[in-house]
Amino acid sequence: MSLSMYQASIPVFIRMLGNLSNLLDKALAHAEAKKFDPTILVNGRLAPDMFPLSRQIQIATDGVKGCAARLAGVEIPSYADTETTIDELKARIARTVAFLQTFTPAQIDGTEDKTVTLKLRGEETQFQGQPYLLDFVLPNLYFHITTAYAILRHNGVEIGKRDYLGPY
């Protein structure tokens, strides 16, 4: 049996967003234990020219909700990108997971050759469905979740590879 577009997307997105939410739980617990304002973590970054933790999470959630919607041919929900707390970021993740859970395999499977057009840096870029998922969306999801992980770890949150990968 081959791996379907649905299997390679929706369950993976949901799992990784769940792991990201769990990382945020540990971040909040760390801030409370060390008695500092958790917005320091929300605004944390690894380098001055990088996006902060909040933006990493916004991009990760935007990428997967956009992917699912584009492949299924439904409207992409719009989020305001105004999260300033860990609780608000967790709510954004939960809202994205709830959206992803509405998709069925019938909506996503068979979209390997579907044309997906994105505006990237002001230019329209076209993908076929499978390369869009495998070569663009998934690497971006992992990049932004890894960067969020690294920001938290850099700021002393006691997390490890097992937290990133989640239970298996």
Q: Can you put this structure into words, describing what you see?
A:
With 168 residues, the protein is mainly α. It has one domain: Four Helix Bundle (Hemerythrin (Met), subunit A) (Up-down Bundle), CATH 1.20.120.450. It contains seven helices and two strands; from the N terminus they run H-H-H-H-H-E-E-H-H. The protein has a two-stranded antiparallel sheet. Helix 1 runs parallel beside helix 6 and helix 3 packs antiparallel against helix 6 (129-154). The chain starts with a helix and ends with a helix.
Quickly list its features:
mainly alpha, Four Helix Bundle (Hemerythrin (Met), subunit A), 2 strands, globular, 168 residues
Radius of gyration: 16 Å
CATH class: Mainly Alpha
Domain module tally: 1
Structural class: mainly alpha
- End-to-end span in angstroms? 22 Å
CATH superfamily: dinb family like domain
Strand order of the largest sheet: 1-2
The rough form would be described as globular
Task: Return residue spans where pLDDT drops below 50 for at least 5 consecutive residues.
Answer: none
CATH topology: Four Helix Bundle (Hemerythrin (Met), subunit A)
Order of SSEs, N→C?
HHHHHEEHH
Q: DSSP strand (E) fraction?
A: 5-15%
Helix content: 55-70%
Oligomer: single chain
Task: Report the average pLDDT across residues.
Answer: 96
| Helix segment tally | 7
Level-2 CATH architecture: Up-down Bundle
Tell me how many strands there are. 2
